[in-house]
Amino acid sequence: MKKAAKIWQVVCCFLVPAVTLFWKLPPIGGERYFALGAFARAIGSGDYYGFWLDSTAGPMLMFCHALMLLGSIVYCARGILALFDKEKRWLNIVGRAMAMLAMYTALIPAQSLPEQERAGYFTVVCICVIPLLEYIGFRFLDEWKEQMDSYREIQKREREEKLRRKKALYFPGKYPKELKGLIWENFRSNFQSGGLLIFGGIMCGIYLVVIIGLGQISVPLKYGTGMSTGKILLTMAAEFGWMIMFLCLILMYYTISNYTKTRKENYRAFLVLGIRTRTIYLIFAAEYIMSLLVAYVAGMVGGSALYMLIRYCFRDMTKGIQVPGVFSVEILGIGSAAFLLIVLLATMFNQENILEMGSSTVFYAEKKPEPIPEKVLGSVIFGLLFFDTGRGIFAIRAWTDNPGSYLAILLSMFLLLSAGMLLYMRRQRKKPGAYQKNLLRNKNIYYRFRRNRWNTFIFSVVHFCVFVIVGSSFLATAIAPAPEKLYPYDIVCMGYEQDVEEIQDIAARHHANGRSYPMVRITARYASESMQSAESLISVLWPQGQNVAISESTYKEMKKELGKKAKDLDLKGKEMHIVYQEDVAMSPKMIETSGSRLAYRMRFGQPLNHYDNTERNDVFPSQKVVSEEKDILTGVFFEGQQENLVVLSDEWFDEVYSEIMEWNSKNMELRMETQDAQWDAYLEEHGKNMTEGQTTLFVWDVPEEEYDSMMEELGFLKEKYPMDTSWDPTAGPLYGARSYVGGIEPVRLENQIVSILTIVILLSFGLLQAYIKTESEMEEIIWQDLFLQRVGMKGKERRKLVRSQVQMNFRISIFVAGVISVIMWATTCAVRYYNGMETLAFFGAGFLFLAVYVLIWEGWLYLMEKRILKETERQ
Description:
By secondary structure, the chain is of the alpha+beta class. Helix content is 66%, strand content 6%. It is built from 29 helices and ten strands. A six-stranded mixed barrel has the order 3-4-8-5-7-6. The protein has a four-stranded antiparallel beta sheet with strand order 2-9-1-10. The longest helix is centred in the C-terminal third of the chain and has 53 residues, at 738-790. The model is unreliable at 222-230 and 528-541 (pLDDT under 50).
């Protein structure tokens, strides 16, 4: 098997670069290249970075390509070393890390690209599966050899003692009927561990079906009547789904580990009494498979029931939309496959315990202490480095929701946790009095360092997911102001110069009180809210977003009108300042999110129905944005992705305003006689729209009884200028606050429901994990308590010791996760541009949430403690 494992490793190592050479990349500038061809062409172009910008994925394809080529080199080196029976562990880690990162960078653009371009990215995913298969296959073959050698050694001993144990080992050729009873009695005698395995499997099945069901519902909702709801559910399914699946794997690993260790102790008696090893494995397989089948059926039934309830809750939004049924392949099929995969991986990780069942005959095996790492400084340095990297990525507004930042922070959490535990142990040992006093409380850290570090880390991950990944959105929605406060004016209108007088007459007739400001339209190259519109325009690859450009003087006037203090921008030349009109509850948006998300590519004027994609960087030049803020000066109309305010210096604005006014005046008469086809023909000939948008911004407060009639009269703007809404029907010249206010609370409620559901799932996972840990250590704690009782320790001291041992991992984890979460909360407030009052409200809600969360955990651990103490009293 050692040879087979080596051959498998060598083949897989050389297979990765071989397949990568034949990877055909998605189109770059209209052409497709193989991996090496693209590298040579990029180097030959003289502008390596610019070459990749001609692809629809931009720098993401460049990162993916670089990771694939570097990973191929690493795997070639691993393959060569393996041929000479040499191995570098750091190469293994680097190679697999590159494969996982390449898969991640391929999946990001693949989610939003046309069908014909996805194949090139999914090829990367298929290639990156090879390292996973290599790891699984090599570990299985390598460790199987050692276990099989041990098994053959036992068989040899059995043959040597055949004469002496002939009667005990006699097998008539078929198993007696009593075997079934033996299996049941063995299972029933220790139902606690078996029941825990079944319960863990049930929870895993429910989690998987629910998260897959949410993902299946969200896709049709996102492009149907419930677009905002679909976005929320899709976010939960896409971002939280992988997190929940990973936690399901950890859950099954621990439940199976606890089950196999308990069964291994039971089967020792069978082995000593002479039962065959093969029969031991048969009994285990029967119990194990039947338990998992029961868990699978119950989990699928429970998950399907919850999925049906979710479908019922969204029945109004899904009318006319095809949503997968409970018994469809999309729900039960994918759920079953995910459950099977998680069970197989968890079983594989526990194969050592499983294989030892047929060879262990020692009732009281000596428990050797686990090795403790010696290096602390390296863990501290790399932990701080990863934390600073993750927090730095998170602090970039465009990348706040990037899972890569969370992964870096979790890795730093593991390293800093290790360093902290090591420093604590060293400090205790330097003080003999403290060491002896706390010896019983800290003995698990001393002798089970790795296990306790891993348990504490898993708890910390759960806390971090609850407080930051899910909790930030939950807290932001909790402190959000009333919807009416998001709209300082009743009506916001934009008009052309020739319509100003008529608009003002309408406002006067309806007793509207307001102001008008000069403005021009400014369009960002990419704004994901308009993706729906962009899909119908084949010639345009980037969904554009419309915003309002104003001068710095106008910005100060608008602030003064609302009683707010304006920032001293002091803009010079072609500098810009962006005012994101966002609700506190909304995740931060970028006004332009194409490519690397670090450039602001915008053009003055309305969206273009088509343009030459190879010249998109000239059509949408990069702008210099020197500052940003979050404030509401006209209203929140597109969650911060459109109708933001772009502030220019007075000189630059006057120049742009004059150009737009002149262009509109020159072509307005022609435009009024133009149909759709003529509009597109003019754009193709001149490279600009016939007119480039409105030039006057109106804001009004309107008496309640005049609102509807005034909105109806102003509706002539949409009828008179249909091309202004041809790109995006929702982004037009007229906005009424009342049509938006009513839709905010339902969206917030849906957001809170999804957040609470995710928090409940994570919390239930953490509590179940604590229960499994306590169950696995209960027997040891009971024996410890019995021993201490007989040596004379008082009951109060013994109870205090039990309490400290039960709560130790939780207290360390809540401290680590709490400190990191507070830092991330501060970063969240900074990246979302919260003001002082919003920051105080966010932290106030956060600490209240933290207190409730800790109380729930303390209550659960108190029940665990009472249960252990009750068991100790029975002894």
